[in-house]
Amino acid sequence: MKKGFVQSAIVFAILLVLYILIAFLVPFAKTATFWVSVVFTVVAFAVAAAAFYIAFIKTPDARSKFYGFPIARIGVIYAIVQIVASFVFMALATFVAEWPVWPAILVYAVALGITLIGLISADAVVEEVQRQDVQLKKDVYLMRSLQSKLNQMASQCDGNPDAADAVKKFAEELRFSDPVSSNALVDVERDLAAAVDELQAAVTDGDSAAVKQLCCKGMGILSERNRLCKLNKN
Q: What is the pLDDT of residues 163-178, one digit of tens each?
């Protein structure tokens, strides 16, 4: 994160220096419009840098970076618009006598306001999407963990084809069931988890008859869970 922040800061500093060099080397009249344009453009660089920080550096994981692109894009577009507008108003103030400063202030302020609103809105959307992702991971954890247990048990039954087939069938049924848990499924999922634990003990003991019986019991509970899932979606 520190390295990415330093690299981004260097890039923005170089671009800002280039802008200042162009602004002061080109013979623009040093009117109020000129100085207002420079100040607002420096602010635009700061806003764009902050957008990049929030989008890519604050949370450096790959998923957060993917979600951060809209935030970074708003900052970049604003900076480009502000730079172009600043040069336009500087030129107008240079070639048009007594060009007033208020049009430049109005345009710059509106652009800044729209950008800040866009950044706040985009950040709120990203936070909500990330929150939903975290919640979804929590919601599917139980069923994924049960499926993992069944897959491991199937490999432990290699010496008993009948028991292995029963466990694999159970695992296949569970794999195609809805993985998302909900409050309405708490009781049936508790029973399903208990059945899988019993099955694991039977597999460890090598009790083939109990394995097949518990697989049937587990698939029955799973069938009830599937029914409840359909009812909750309707």
A: 888 888 888 888 888 8
